[in-house]
Amino acid sequence: MTLDLSVLALLVLAAFLTGWVLARRDPTAAVGAQADRLRRNYFRGLNYLLNEQPDKAIEVFLQIAEIDKQTVETHLALGNLFRRRGETDRAIRVHQNLIARANLTSEQKSLALLELGEDYMRAGLLDRAETLFTDLVGIDAHAPSALRHLIAICQQERDWKRAIEHARRLEEITGESQAELVSQFLCELAEHAAARGDAAQTRAYLTEAVTVAPLAVRPRLIKGRLAHERQDWSRAANAYERAVENDIEYLPIALGPLLDALEQLDRRESIDAMLEESMRRYPGISPVLKMTRRVRARDGDEAAIRFLADRLRKKPSVRGLAELVDLQLSGTQGEAREPLERLRDLLRQLLDGQALFRCSRCGFSARAHHWQCPGCKSWSTIKPVHGIAGN
Questions:
Q1: Do 239 and 220 meet the contact criterion of CB atoms below 8 Å apart?
Q2: Domain boundaries, the chain
Q3: Which residue has the higher pLDDT, 330 or 161?
Q4: How far apart are CA 150 and CA 144, in angstroms?
Q5: What's the Rg (C-alpha) of the chain?
Q6: What is the pTM assigned to this prediction?
Q7: pLDDT tens digit string along 131-175?
Q8: CATH number of the domain at 5-159, out of 2.40.110.10, 1.25.40.10, 3.40.50.360, 2.60.120.460?
């Protein structure tokens, strides 16, 4: 169990505050003994948490909550533990009972509402969660956290326009740039507009996406793809080139259609120069393989083999080795083919199980690229995998 540091800090603070408040309220020996007992129980519960024994920790905190019904922090921590364990019904009851108290301060009530909203989200009750978070933003209580939750809800519901509104409000409140996030949402809107054939609206969304985040790659790639589909080769090439200039990590996605557009424009010298530059800047094997095929088409198999073998000595790659074996097979006859064919098959089996992309935040791996990580829901964190078996 990964512990939330805020929960631990809350419990430690509560352990001391409970005893202090009780002692101040009534300095008699009986109250002092109760305060000491509460403190001991808090630290016993913390010890269970640190030793990853959540069941025992919950049992201790339930006992504390029964003894000291006025301690808000205890109930908040208890509800949080229930939610983290997947017991959302119990978490909801704890937080609802807490909110029903008449003696809560406005800060305590808003914190309990925020926790209840998270309970609802975990339970899939998005409409109830959205109502609570919207109310918190309206009264300017825990607004940044509430807005982040609202953005998450809008993403689940694919309500990109409202997600943009919340992101811009979050930027106003915190001063933290949400440009990359807003650009992604605008790209989602552009994709939907393109799917329904609304070219004017698609262009408008993409223009705004670039304006909001000038270095964003995704709107450039969408522009390139749409221009490619229209066979507008000049615009397609320009869009793909700008995307790669902004972030070389997206080269494997842009490289194929970019080369196709440059071929259509008969810019063969530009292709060679671009591939040379890409091999210098990009750590993966993709541009090397593209250049190998150009060398083969221009100068033959032997030249391609020499070129690729030289590159592989400097930058080993399983994908490059598989290409080299294929080149060797094309000029090999008789008994010499069999070991090469076995090697080719083994390399293909190895590559079939390899991920091509990985999220830099949570480690989610996939063979296809995703703009939003299916694992941690972060944007623009999935990039090509490098290394000996990478892209």
A1: yes
A2: 5-159, 177-191+199-239, 267-353, 355-391
A3: 161
A4: 10
A5: 29
A6: 0.79
A7: 999 999 998 889 999 999 999 999 999 999 999 999 999 999 999
A8: 1.25.40.10
